[in-house]
Design brief:
It is a single chain. The protein is α/β, with parallel strands linked by helices. The chain has one domain: TIM Barrel (Alpha-Beta Barrel). Helix content is 44%, strand content 16%. The chain is built from 13 helices and twelve strands. The chain has an eight-stranded parallel beta sheet with strand order 1-12-9-8-5-4-3-2. A two-stranded antiparallel ribbon has the order 6-7. A two-stranded antiparallel sheet has the order 10-11. Strand 3, helix 7 and strand 4 form a beta-alpha-beta unit. Helix 4 packs parallel to helix 6 and helix 7 crosses helix 8. The protein is globular.
Length: 301
């Protein structure tokens, strides 16, 4: 079939299905506490590609890369900063191998853990680190760069600009929001969906969205706010399997695949164009989401 640009597919009214959580999958395959998950793209490639294939078999139209924490700044905590290019390219190549030529690959780029406002880093350092990551992901074969789980506008802007100015990839930028006691959605830095959307588009984002922090129900409201600000921009949603409960020191997500799938129509009505999962989700969740999209006659085929 070949791949069009994601924005073009969305403009035609198709709803695309993305993948689910990677971290818990890696843990099931043996990732130990304190171990660098991104390095597995080099040391345990068979495990990484198996995760990608599992989501594709469940019906995902696209998969991410095992590179969420693979910026040189983030990798420095493992002493791996000099291997950032190698790790990101390997992650992209594995997901591309699994996806073939018909499915999309999204290069995952998460927060560095360092903030400009606290003096831990500078805009120039962030830009350089994200630039290196984005270029390596593109060389490995990604179609789009997915800058995700962001909460700080300063960092997100540097990531978006670095990817936009140095690659030919489509740029997806998603933020994580919390519902405040006042009934408003804001990031931990106080950023609203509307202000995030304005800054992201100004920096060069092609696709907006939200991930993590919320289940499907809460995502409906966030999507509505983003859509109101930029009705012409496609929106990606990676929802958790409900809100977490802490049991014996572990976060447990109880929303079932069927429960998540029931909310797909509402999410689409709110304006979502790409729907997948985040924490607590697995291939069974993606399979049910794909069925819900297909039942509505909106699946891409």
């Amino acid at each position: 079939m070949g791949r069009s640009r994601l924005t073009e597919v969305a403009q035609k009214g198709h709803i695309l299905v993305s993948d689910g959580a990677w971290g818990t999958f890696l843990q099931q395959k043996g990732l130990q506490p304190g171990e660098c998950p991104d390095l597995w793209s080099v040391t345990r490639p068979e495990a990484v590609i198996d995760i990608a294939r599992s989501y594709l078999a469940a019906g995902a139209d696209m998969i991410e890369t095992n590179s969420f924490g693979a910026s040189s700044i983030k990798l420095a905590q493992y002493g791996l900063q000099d291997r950032a290019g190698e790790i990101n390219r390997a992650a992209a190549m594995l997901s591309r191998q699994a996806a073939g030529e018909d499915k999309w690959v999204l290069g995952a780029m998460g927060p560095t853990g360092k903030m400009i406002i606290s003096g831990q880093t500078t805009p120039q350092e962030l830009y350089a680190s994200f630039r290196q990551q984005a270029i390596a992901l593109e060389k490995g074969g990604v179609d789009a760069v997915c800058i995700e789980t962001m909460f700080d506008l300063d960092e997100a802007i540097q990531a978006i600009k670095a990817a936009k100015e140095n690659t030919a990839c489509e740029i997806i930028a998603t933020f994580t929001f919390e519902l405040t006691k006042m009934g408003e959605f804001r990031t931990m830095m106080g950023v609203t969906p509307a202000s995030y959307a304005q800054a992201a588009v100004a920096a060069g984002a092609d696709i907006l969205g939200t991930n993590c922090g919320n289940g499907m129900q809460q995502m409906v409201g966030i999507v509505k706010e983003i859509k109101t600000s930029f009705p012409e921009k496609p929106i990606l949603v990676h929802a958790n399997a409900g809100l977490p409960e802490t049991i014996d020191g572990r976060d447990v997500y109880r929303e079932t695949p069927a429960e998540m799938a029931q909310l797909v129509p509402a999410l689409i009505d709110a304006g979502a164009n790409i729907i997948g999962g985040c924490c607590g989700t697995n291939p069974r969740h993606i399979e049910r989401i794909k069925k819900a999209v297909t039942d509505l006659g909106r699946a891409y085929a």
